Amino acid sequence: MLGSFFVFPQAPGARIRGLGLRAHGGAGRQSAACGGNGHCRRLSGVRMGYVRERSGHAGEQGFSLIEVLVVLSIMALVLTLVAPRVVGWLGSSQAKTAEMQVKNIAAAIDLFRLEVGRYPTEAEGLQALVAAPAGVAGWRGPYLNSKTLPMDPWGRPYQYRIPPRHGVAFDVISLGADGAPGGEGENADVHN
């Protein structure tokens, strides 16, 4: 872009100062300026001694308000159709994440039992998977990949019960989205 710069009134064929351009035409509202290579640019009027390069062609000013409103309304319509599905997928993914974490914790507890010869007590809890309990021989952990216990997808710690209430050797439980026992859908408990 040529930008705005000061030009003294020029006669046709005279050089425009600082640009190496020749002015063709008079001091009218539009004139053309050509460089030494023969390429010409349209310049809009010489007003108060300033010359500005024209941007674009006539009729290419941008989008009208109606065009913008139509596009925004189409986008809003698409979002109203897609948003409930995305929210449903997000909720189900949290429950699936909890199921996977419960399975990983249960596998770590089984590995603990194989090496130590017993399951962690309820007093030792899941912390026995990441730090050796006092007085336990044969502990070769940590049995989880992280140095801390994972939280459930809703930000609460997993619960560990021994003896179990669900007919397996132990219970690892997440109370779901509501944090209360029982529930349905996203609020349902997740256990091994």
Can you describe what's shown?
By secondary structure, this protein is of the alpha+beta class. It folds into two domains: 5-53, no CATH class; 89-191, 2-Layer Sandwich (Glycoprotein, Type 4 Pilin), CATH 3.30.700. It contains one helix and nine strands. It has one helix at 65-116; strands at 5-6, 15-16, 21-24, 30-34, 40-47, 50-53, 159-161, 171-174, 190-191. The two termini are 68 Å apart.
Q: How do you describe this structure in short?
A:
This protein has one helix at 65-116; strands spanning 5-6, 15-16, 21-24, 30-34, 40-47, 50-53, 159-161, 171-174, 190-191.
How does the SSE layout of this entry go?
Layout: E1 5-6, E2 15-16, E3 21-24, E4 30-34, E5 40-47, E6 50-53, H1 65-116, E7 159-161, E8 171-174, E9 190-191
Antiparallel strand pairs: 1-6, 2-3, 3-4, 4-5, 5-6, 7-8, 8-9
Span of the ends, CA to CA: 68 Å
Number of E-state strands: 9
Order of helices and strands: EEEEEEHEEE
Give the CATH topology of the largest domain: Glycoprotein, Type 4 Pilin
Estimate what percentage of residues fall within beta strands. 15-25%
